[in-house]
Specification:
Two copies of one chain form a homodimer.
Chain A lengths: L9 H19 L7 H11 L6 H12 L6 H21 L9 E2 L2 E2 L1 H5 L1 H21 L5 H12 L4 H8 L8 H27 L4 H28 L2 H4 L5 H4 L11 H18 L8 H7 L2 H4 L2
Helix pairs in contact in A: 1-3, 1-4, 2-6, 3-4, 3-9, 4-6, 4-7, 4-9, 6-7, 7-9, 8-9, 9-10, 10-13
């Protein structure tokens, strides 16, 4: 990854939100009455690392709508990160992607066994919805609908079903888009929409922020696919070349580097265009699309 | 299982509610946009069988509070059954209880593979919370809190963690009670409380119905343990003797038949006492405690 001029890295841009999210997760993750070993495994799978892109998008979208730091926004951010962590733990299982390394550490099933890994995922998913409901806010129901739709059988789960070759897909790049839209972009879209909903934005603004996040989600996944071919383990925190080696559908298998760069730039341009009506308040979100990580390779 | 006088069987008592729940699940289970193979697996794991005890308790508790058949009650009933079905699918996995037969049919991972079984569970859990939120009702948040608490890391997931020997437990019967309270009784308690909440019952009545259901949950699990030792596959729909053979903690290992019968009767007496303030409206719930299935063996 190369720096361009004075642009921050992705990590630098997300750091304040990641810090906030880490604190909130630490506060809300474990209810009273959770057995110690389960609590330890839940903490292992949730705290101590990760870009926190989804919670950052919740906070950034709320800020772009003129409201910062509310309790509801923090809950929405923590909830979507819990659901994301559930998906990582379950996707890493031997029956799925069979990964042994995640964020530079042993995956949950390597560390705690498969049974605990399955149960930790279920616990995180359940906790996320409990946390949203416990906010006891008029917007909780709408936030829950957004999260459930993005995470569920028509969203992230469908993306993993497709990625595991468990359903029919269009050929070529369309098939890859089908997976990326559901597996990655749906949750980023939900994150941005949830932030806007927390800020009481109007429907048009909620939609615009969702469109923005979907486009950067597709760009991000494109980058991730390509980095997986060219990158090193210390950069991406997992075994490089694994996806291609496993002969999975990736953009790298369908596009030249030039073709991928062109598509990435189209997606980021579309993301920026979605933010037009928000003016200067969207500067952080625009900055996110201009990151080297999203525009080069 | 022997009939006593004119008592209905458990199946006969639950049948009208099971029928209603089956219809509601068929209507609400699959959102638009779910891949066909995933939808098929979700239907396989949810429709076509099961006692539907949890949804029946939601409806019966609402009836006992004087309100029947509302849309919210039906959603609550369907949601808790989806969460229950998720737990069955995940508990059956090779890394957990490694069961190949459920309700007389191949378990989900035998039929669709482990990856799909893990994903179906996640989809069902997510759909349950989405369904409650979509009711867009002032009581949705409270219902979600009840369901999340009962299903999550301090409830049903904790029960399975304990049952899998993944956390420390008290010795002997206390350890069994720890498991039964979380793995079975917590969800029955939540079902009855959710029914009462749907019917706008006061807090005292919500608590009373929850206490009733917890007691019959403990009695039911006691019966299930004992039947597992003495029963036949056609009665219980799974391989008999499996739990004892796997050397799992069961009441059968700790209690004589007489001791188990005495404990079962104490639990059902306690359940009936919890219903005192409800008068005749609780007749169906009292009938449930008097079933041979709960009082004999």
């Amino acid at each position: 990854m190369t720096r361009q001029g004075n642009s921050p890295t992705l990590g630098e841009l997300l750091e304040p939100f990641a810090h906030r999210c880490e604190q909130d997760l630490g506060r809300w993750l474990i209810e009273p009455g959770v057995p110690g070993t389960l609590a330890e495994a839940m903490r292992y799978c949730t705290l101590g690392g990760g870009k926190r892109l989804r919670p950052a998008l919740v906070h950034m979208a709320a800020e772009a709508c003129g409201r910062t730091g509310s309790n509801l926004t923090a809950r929405a951010a923590a909830a979507i990160e819990m659901v994301h962590c559930c998906s990582l733990v379950h996707d890493d299982l031997p029956a799925m992607d069979d990964d042994t390394l995640r964020r530079g550490r042993p995956t949950a099933h390597v560390k705690f066994g498969q049974a605990m890994a399955i149960l930790v995922g279920d616990a995180l998913l359940t906790r996320a919805f409990g946390l949203l409901a416990k906010a006891d806010d008029r917007r909780s129901g709408r936030l829950t609908c957004e999260l459930a739709r993005a995470a569920g059988a028509a969203g992230m789960v469908a993306g993993q079903v497709a990625d595991m070759d468990l359903c029919q897909l269009p050929e070529g790049l369309e098939g890859i888009r089908f997976i990326h839209l559901r597996k990655t972009a749906a949750m980023l879209r939900a994150a941005a929409r949830m932030g806007a909903i927390c800020a009481d934005a109007d429907d048009k603004t909620v939609d615009a922020l969702g469109d923005y996040a979907e486009a950067i989600g597709l760009a991000f996944q494109l980058f991730d696919d390509l980095l997986d071919v060219t990158g090193a383990a210390e950069t991406i925190g997992k075994t490089p070349g694994k996806d291609a080696g496993a002969d999975k559908r990736t953009a790298a298998a369908q596009l030249s580097l030039d073709g991928a760069r062109k598509l990435g730039n189209e997606l980021t341009d579309r993301a920026i265009a979605s933010l037009e009506s928000l003016g200067e308040k969207a500067d952080t979100l625009i900055c996110l699309t201009r990151l080297p990580a999203l525009r080069t390779h």
